[in-house]
C-alpha cells in the first residue's frame, strides 16, 4: 500500500513538466519533525510562478505544517529537513538570513492578526523598520496595497483609526495588504478565509485572483469549493504525504488516487 | 433539601461573605477618612513637622514619599522590563529559567521588614550610603522588582502569539517584533502594573525605617542642586516618608496633637493610594481604548 502510494505520488508530482513552466518555489524531500514524530515525509512539490496552488487534505494531514515550513515559520517549533529551493538558493539552510527571506516570501494567517495600531501604521510600520521614511512614498504604498486588497474605498477616510475596530473580513484583507506592501514574490496563505463569513470569503477570493497577476500564491484551504474556484494547481495531502498533485481541473474531475476521490467527494476528512 | 433551595442558600451565603468583606473595607476606609480628612489643610500638606509643638504638617514627608517613589521606579522599571521581556520572549523552558522564576516568586513573598533589614546591612552599612534616599530607593527596588517583573511578564504573555507571527512574517527580527509590536500592545497592562506597584511603594514603611531613615531634616526648597545636602533633590540625605512618619508618631510621637497629625497623615496616605489605583484603571482603560478603537 505504502509503495503503491509512493509511486503514484512520484508520477503525479510530475503531472506537469516543471521545465515548461517557470517555477517560483520548490521543495525537495522535505521532512518535518515535531520532536520525534514525523509530521511531513516526502514533501516534493513545485509551485509555478503567478499561479495559485492549493494545498488540501483532512485535518492533521500536514498541509499547514508544510506551508509554514516554506518561509521557516516553524523554525522554533519543529525540525525541518530537506531543501526548499527559491531562485536557485536552498532557503532551508543555516546560512540564509531568514528575516531577509521572509520579505520575499510573505504569509497571511488563519486568524486575522492586525497589529494594535492604526490601519495606516499596520502597513507602513514594517516599511519604516526597513528605513523607508519618505512620507509620500509611504502614503503611496499604503494606498496601492489597500487598493490591491480591494479595501481602499472602505477605509480611505479612516486610515488613522485602529485596525482592531475593523470587521473580521476587513481585518483579513488588511493583513493581505500588509503582507503585499513589502512586495514579496510569493504569498503563503494558511486558511485565510476559514474565520470569515461567506461574503467576506468571496471578497478575499476575488482579492487573491486579482493578486495572481503579480504574485505566486500558495494557499492551504479546508474548503474544496474554494480550491476549485481559485486555484490552478491542487495538492492533496494525507498523513503527512502528498498523495496527488495536478492541475485543479484534473484533481476535481479525474483524480488518479482513490483517497483523493474519497476526500473530494466528502467521504472522509 | 431540593436543588433549588440549596442553590438559594448557597447564593445567600456567598452574598453574605461578599457583603462582610465590603463592610470591613468600607468601615476601615470610612473610619480613617472621617478621622483624618478634617485635619487636612493646605498648611498641613505643606509645612514641616514639629516634634514638640502642635500645628506641625507633613510637607517634607509628602515630598520625600514622592521623591523616593520616583527614584525607586526609575531604578526598578528598566530592570523589570528587561527581566520580563527576557523571561517571556527569549527564555526557553529549562531548569535555569525555572530557577529564576522560583526565585522571583520567593522574593515577592519576602516580608518587607526583612527587605528593610537586608537594605540596612547591605546599602546602609556595607556600601556606606547611610540612612539616605538612595538606600531607601534601593531597598524599595528590591521590594518592587519581583512583583513588577511578574506583572510585566504576565502583560507580555497575554499578547497572543499571532501578533509575533505577524511580525516575523513581515521579515522583522525577534527584537523588532518584541520592542515595536509586543511591548506597545502590552503597554496598557504594563502601565496598570507600574501604577499599582507605585501605590504599594508609596504606602511602604517597614522597608524604609532602617534604610531611608526616620528623620526629616528641614529642606531648602529654593536650592535644587542635587549635590547639596540641604537640597530636596539630594539623594544622600535621610528622608522619612509619610508611611514611616505615621508609624513613628504612633510609636513615639510626643507632640500634643500627635493623634490629629497621625489621623491626617493616614488619610492623605490612603487617598494617595486610592488615587494610584483609580489612575491605574483609568489609564489602562484609556490606553486600551486608544489602541483598539478610536
Automatic annotation (TrEMBL), chain A:
Residues 25-264 form the ABC transporter domain. CDD domains: ABC_PstB_phosphate_transporter. One of its GO terms (biological process) is phosphate ion transmembrane transport. Keywords: ATP-binding, Cell membrane, Membrane, Nucleotide-binding, Phosphate transport, Translocase, Transport. InterPro entries: AAA+_ATPase (IPR003593), ABC_transporter-like_ATP-bd (IPR003439), ABC_transporter-like_CS (IPR017871), P-loop_NTPase (IPR027417), PstB-like (IPR005670). NCBIfam families: 3a0107s01c2. This is Phosphate ABC transporter ATP-binding protein [Lactobacillus sp.].
TrEMBL record, chain B:
Gene3D superfamilies: MetI-like. Keywords: Cell membrane, Membrane, Transmembrane, Transmembrane helix, Transport. Residues 62-280 form the ABC transmembrane type-1 domain. The chain crosses the membrane at residues 12-34, 66-87, 99-123, 129-148, 181-202, 260-280. Its main location: membrane. GO terms for molecular function: phosphate transmembrane transporter activity. GO terms for cellular component: plasma membrane. Belongs to the binding-protein-dependent transport system permease family. CysTW subfamily. This is Phosphate transport system permease protein PstA. It comes from Lactiplantibacillus mudanjiangensis.
